[in-house]
Amino acid sequence: MDEHIDKISGRVKQALGALKGDRELKREGEQQERKGEAKGHIDDAVDKAQDAADDLKDKIEGAVDKA
User: What are the structural domain ranges in the chain?
Assistant: First the structure.
């Protein structure tokens, strides 16, 4: 959820910076949006790793039950 807040806040800052002619605010918004995107990628990677670990655990438990 934090990723969406960062992305939206970043876009708002970019728009305000563009309207006001404030390059620093626009740049800050771009950085915040990228931060949100990075958080999203990290969260996706963590979810995939957890799913893979769960699948492996299930396979191991299945093999142990058969033995």
Answer: 2-66
